[in-house]
């Protein structure tokens, strides 16, 4: 019965209402993806959205993040899960990119697990253990979600091949996809902070030949910004396509022939924005905050 309820819960929450190609949560300004704690499998699920105040996790990327308890060490022998659904509302399924920033604080046998389901929760794919079988690609090195990290890391996973359902061992429905994150602790007695996550981004690929996601292509500063946002690009192209959207997914700036190194933000209302920079071969996504 619990499994049935869990499956129904997933089915109810596959929702996005924005037509843009980028969907994101930073847990401060933007909540495009609805996060749901799995309290069916574990009534004491420790995932929380808040400002961390722990031994190692003393601050978040901005203010709030998604963390295994914002105040207390993670308990021993715990398995806690959250999930969210993502539904495309435009044609042409050409796969997805999943990106987020994270920190880990655990021993060598504490670990995080990420699973995706392309068929409403009937089948789940462990992205780290089954990446070869299910054509999951890593934009940089394949990450490890075990032990501890000294600083922020970026998880960047590419599911472009999932548009070719005939190559997959399971039946796919690429119009919607479910993501499930689980943190699992052992029976150790040494206190640890667990897993801290921020800036979850899903990038919908709108064509089969979308540029390669490369968030190291540019940096933006100052951040927060008041009057003038500067873009430092490593691209060798003479111009780029730059688009900025607000937290409602509305385009507030667009220049397909951008050749400068700054954007005037004096007319932007205070808040969080997402900048996409594409030089044709690569695409970078960076967040920034306007504060006048």
TrEMBL record:
Residues 1-19 form the signal peptide. Transmembrane segments: none annotated. Coiled coil: none annotated. InterPro entries: Secre_tail. Keywords: Signal. It comes from Flexibacter flexilis DSM 6793. Residues 220-290 form the Secretion system C-terminal sorting domain. This is Por secretion system C-terminal sorting domain-containing protein.
